[in-house]
Amino acid sequence: MNHARGTRLIHWLIASLKQCFAVAVLGAALLTTAALGDDKVPEGATAAKGASISGVEAEKAPREGIADEAGFVSLFNGRDLTGWDGSGWTVEDGVMVCHGGFLTWRQQQFTNFILRFEVKLSPGANNGLNFRSRNSYWNEIQILDETHPGYATIHDYQAPGSLYGVAAARRGVSKPVGQWNSQEVMADGTHIKVTLNGAVVVDADLSKLDLDKCLDGAAHPGLRDPSGDLGWLGHLNADEKEGPVYLRNLRIKILP
User: Fold this and answer.
1) Residues 10 and 121 occupy one common structural domain
2) Is residue 131 within a helix (H) or strand (E), and if so which, with residue range?
3) Looking at the domain assignment, is residue 65 inside a domain?
4) What are the pLDDT digits (tens) for 147-188?
5) Tell me, what DSSP letter sits at residue 15?
6) Under 8 Å CB-to-CB from 230, ≥6 apart: which residues?
């Protein structure tokens, strides 16, 4: 074998080996993809821009399990009642506790907003979120242990989450006494919506209600006010005692 023929043979062998190696790598990649499923990318690989994940572009896929908290500001620092004014309230283990008494946010008044918070009740507890309030007018979102025998005959417009006396609430949504409930209250113009533990319990348009004679037979003229104070109403419980109510994770978002 001369030198030229030997060199060509060596080059041919190298090229053949490269082809075999490429085929082997491709086969391994196909097997890996099949094992992972059509919607997944092997570890270390990157999905191309615009690649499909269950029919949705990868860069547009939603982040599951993450609540939309953009724009929310805390109303409780977890240590004390800075910003709040009232009596009968304390802070215990990072939680606001009502022992009976009113509490009002004094840093500013609110017009349109979304308020989110968590609330836990003691047996027979009775409280309320007071919003857009001025002077002696209360606009109350009810907070109540509706399972207590003392409240067995309440009306739907007195139930947890109701716009008290004005808009009835869906019943049976509260968690058992001693467990934390998540609640959201939206006041946007005349639109009032209350969500309790993920369920909408009130969705009312004040402009369509007779505020001079509401469900409880009384007038609620304070609801015509577009803005006012925000606070809590520490009512006596079903046994006419100061049953504690616990609040945490208070945050608010101002709406235009």
Assistant:
1) no
2) strand 126-133
3) no
4) 999 999 999 999 999 999 999 999 999 999 999 999 999 999
5) H
6) 104, 105, 109, 110, 113, 115, 129, 130, 131, 132, 133, 252
